[in-house]
Amino acid sequence: MTGPDSLAPPQMVLEAVPADPPTLADVARLAGVSPATVSRVLTGSVPVRRETKDKVQEAVTRLGYVRNRAAWSTARLRAGSIALVFCEANVRVFADSFFARMLSGLSRALASADLQLILLTPHSPREYHTMSRYLRAGHVDGAVFISMHSRPDFDLARLGIPLVLCGRPGEGGEKLSYVDADNVDGARRAVEYLLESGRKAVATIAGPRDMSPGIDRLLGYRKAMASVGVSDPGMIAYGDFGLVSGEQAMYRLADHRPSLDAVFVASDLMAAGALRALRRLGRRVPDDVAVVGFDDSPLAQNTDPPLSTVRQPVDAMAAWMAGELLTAIASPSSEPRYVVLDTELILRDST
Fold this sequence. Notes:
This protein has 12 helices and 13 strands. By secondary structure, it is an alpha/beta fold.
């Protein structure tokens, strides 16, 4: 961010590349279904089989299809740009591949809109104040917020621009549109798999307690453990989604519960740190301790051993967020939308 009295755009401006926009019919053709089925999947108006939904979501991602382009084409733009807000310190944004994948996905999804993406990375209260002034000053037509932490001193609704959030908002954000992965169900299924495979003492390294992904993935863990009658606070440690915090949390768990034989970790980066700690402790993976992460980032295939993980559909989430934001810009009075996409358990050698 720039200084507190400046309204100049922040560090990075990415020019979207114009392209012929794909149509709903193109999505239907690629997915091998009817346009009506595509419409049902995109609107969520009628239940659709999981296999069909996956095919449509994959086609949407591959084509970069954005909903309601007709409405977008009639929108009155003030600035010709949108803000992409990563609510983390720069060092974190550039260290975690999730942010690069989300940036790439949004850039592809917005390519046909012929506008700029302005990247903002507020972290301190001063930076949030500067960002708020910048957004309210009419420099952008809308914004996507990613990696939001609970901030009682920051009211998103008062920014006065169309918004879409990546992830379920915290308290006070109920009337804001969001796109999320099903963090609760993804975590629950991962832990259930560990239990069903014979693991008896399953711990977790949870994410931050002020972020909905951290809260929801911990809830999924607790639901799975409750189903077998287990509730042990000593089997829960917390990290910040970063590698070092995962390593430190694994040391704490191993010290408090040396008999643990599995750990569900709320991010792949933290899981990589947990693997490093287990290796230094002389605990074999998966023979002594099974490990499951969350994200299915590129890192997951390159850990030692390759990491079992919960895949969240980052590209599809980006495409949905782009579509919902363009719709909100074109129709400011439209009702907020809440989109939750399925996750998938990917099994590799760490389990």
